[in-house]
Design goal:
Elements lengths: L15 H4 L2 H14 L6 H18 L3 H5 L6 H14 L5 E5 L2 E4 H26 L3 H11 L10 H31 L9 H7 L1 H24 L18 H23 L8
Antiparallel strand pairs: 1-2
InterPro entries: ABC/ECF_trnsptr_transmembrane, EcfT
Subunit structure: Forms a stable energy-coupling factor (ECF) transporter complex composed of 2 membrane-embedded substrate-binding proteins (S component), 2 ATP-binding proteins (A component) and 2 transmembrane proteins (T component).
Family: Belongs to the energy-coupling factor EcfT family.
């Protein structure tokens, strides 16, 4: 389960998506995620599916690698679907057994919500898999640069996000090593009730926190030894410059958002009454 978490991981490949400016990928990902909540018909989700799978194809990232990131949220996905399925009234009653009642509106809401969550994770994973943490930091800092006039510490915020993304795979690997070491010493983490399983996690969490604090201290000392003083006056080795491919990506994404919004909201083709 730990190895299935793909947040913060980078998949190197020679693709058009990898070569795009990080600002383009951040903005286009946000536009895509926002568009998922504007649909009111099945055609909108068809367009979202075509757009997402087209980007995955261009990115040359194995589909199974992106799907692997969905495994950690299966429980959350099932809970969300069940809540919408059984607790959403409205429309024709499809199933009514005792206190269990499934309506047409509840079924459509549950399906749409499941699709939204899956595409949210897949879209976000595609951005992190095709962009290095340093590029994400530079792109985010450049996008938020106007907030410097409001005395918002943009560089510091971007640096913290970059460090957090970089530490996620490291801490996951450290957790996996600690778990294997504890199991090799006879620790039982699978059997027992919920409280017993929670107690079994203590021998993992304690050394993990110690390791995390030690790594953070080493990083702080390394930055201080290199006279790091924030972003004021610092130049970039690779400054971000928009190219023709970046403008084309903006245009395609905006065109998709406009078409998907119009089709998904106003074209009268619905799988269920929404």
């Amino acid at each position: 389960m730990i190895r299935d978490i793909t947040i913060g991981q980078y998949y190197p490949a020679d693709s058009r998506i990898h070569k795009l400016d990080p600002r383009v990928k951040i903005v286009c990902t946000l536009l895509y995620l926002i568009s998922l909540f504007t649909f009111k018909s099945i055609l909108g989700y068809v367009l979202a599916t075509v757009f997402l799978f087209g980007c995955i194809k261009l990115a040359k990232v194995p589909f199974k690698f992106i799907v692997r990131g969905l495994k950690p949220i299966i429980i959350l996905l099932l809970i969300t679907v069940c809540f919408n399925l059984f607790l959403t009234p409205g429309g024709k009653t499809l199933v009514h057994v005792g206190f269990i009642k499934i309506t047409e509106y509840g079924l459509s809401t549950a399906v749409y919500m499941a699709i939204r969550l899956i595409y949210l994770i897949m879209g976000s994973s595609l951005m992190t898999l095709t962009t290095t943490p340093n590029s994400l930091t530079d792109g985010l800092e450049k996008l938020l640069h106007p907030l410097n006039k409001l005395h918002v510490p943009v560089h510091e915020i971007s640096m913290m996000m970059s460090i957090a993304l970089r530490f996620i795979p490291i801490l996951l690997e450290e957790t996996d090593k600690i778990m294997k070491a504890q199991i090799a010493r006879g620790a039982d983490m699978e059997s027992g009730n919920l409280i017993q399983k929670a107690k079994a996690m203590i021998p993992i969490l304690v050394p993990l926190f110690v390791s995390a604090f030690r790594r953070a201290n080493d990083l702080a000392m390394a930055m201080e030894a290199r006279c790091y003083r924030g972003g004021n006056g610092r130049t970039k080795m690779k400054p971000l410059i928009y190219k023709s491919a970046d403008h084309m990506a903006y245009l395609i994404t905006i065109l998709y958002v406009v078409i998907a919004f119009v089709v998904g909201r106003y074209v009268p083709f619905k799988l269920w009454i929404f």
